[in-house]
Write a structure and sequence with these properties.
Layout lengths: L1 E5 L9 E6 L3 E2 L4 E9 L5 E18 L2 E15 L2 E3 L4 E9 L8 E2 L2 E2 L5 E9 L2 E4 L3 E5 L3 H12 L3 E9 L11 E8 L7 E10 L3 E10 L8 E10 L8 H13 L6
Parallel strand pairs: 3-13
Antiparallel strand pairs: 1-2, 2-4, 4-8, 5-6, 5-7, 5-11, 9-10, 11-12, 11-13, 14-15, 15-16, 16-17, 17-18
Helix pairs in contact: 1-2
């Protein structure tokens, strides 16, 4: 997997660069590795700096409007200044560690609608920055995240889509300037719930899980959101009956419909 383009800054005869990932599959906290292949053109060219970064599409609210923006959330310089001779070929290896809070882009082997993460190669040439397109990667859930998601599926919830929103969750320690919401349609056993959103704020040894249930209104009452948060320790996550834990809270929210 890779992309190839001519380097900016010299026009015709410039070098070309192609970034090839050794594997595009990774989990939060894991490492993505690859090689940046540089092929000299017909003229000498000086590249001041080479960097790789991770970026994702984030929903940003501005007043009454919303728009999508590419947000860079990890960056590493992999090479300093060097000169490319005509016809010269060489490769620059790199490794980039994903932050634990990196959005998930694959669930059950399928791409997650509404979320994407990619690697971008950035070159500084003649005091100008050449930022390439995003080379997409597949970010799979952590084992503990899979336990929660699988439990929801067993309870009858169906995945809809996900989005990444700019901002911080109140009262939750967060490293990145955004968070992902994974949206589920409710199961039959929870008729009082319109929608369930799940957010993971992961770390190296544990993660915080935020559940947001959109509760239906009654005949004379408006619907409202109900929140629940809890910590999952990776070391003990597999010994917990998550379907039972989640059902206890969801049933208290979804089986009581207020009419007055």
């Amino acid at each position: 997997m890779g992309f190839k383009r001519l380097l900016a800054g010299v026009g015709a005869g410039g070098a070309s660069v192609e970034t090839i990932l050794r594997s595009a599959h990774v989990a939060p906290g894991g490492t993505i590795a690859g090689d940046i292949h540089v092929i000299g053109g017909t003229v000498d060219q000086v590249i001041e700096r080479v960097a790789v970064s991770l970026a994702t599409r984030v929903e940003v609210e501005s007043g009454d409007n919303e728009y999508l923006s590419n947000v860079e959330f990890s960056r590493q310089v992999v090479w300093g200044s060097f000169q490319v001779q005509p016809g010269q070929r060489f490769a620059i290896p790199f490794e980039l560690v994903l932050p634990w809070e990196t959005p998930i882009t694959v669930l059950g082997g399928r791409a997650v609608a509404g979320s994407s993460v990619g690697v971008r190669t950035e070159l500084e040439i003649a005091r100008s920055i050449d930022k390439g397109d995003l080379d997409p990667i597949a970010v799979h859930p952590l084992p503990a995240q899979n336990l929660i998601l699988d439990a929801l599926v067993r309870l009858g919830f169906g995945f809809r889509r996900a989005d990444v929103e700019k901002g911080h969750i109140r009262g939750v320690r967060q490293e990145l300037p955004f968070y992902q919401e994974i949206e589920f349609a409710p199961g039959r056993n929870y008729p009082g719930i319109n929608e369930l959103e799940v957010t993971f704020v992961a770390g190296p040894t544990s993660m915080y899980v935020v559940l947001e249930a959109d509760k239906r209104g009654g005949m004379f009452t408006e619907g409202h959101d109900t929140f629940h948060g809890f910590t999952v320790d990776y070391a003990s996550a597999s010994s917990t009956d998550w379907a039972g834990v989640l059902h206890n809270w969801l049933s208290s929210v979804g089986q009581r419909r207020s009419f007055f």
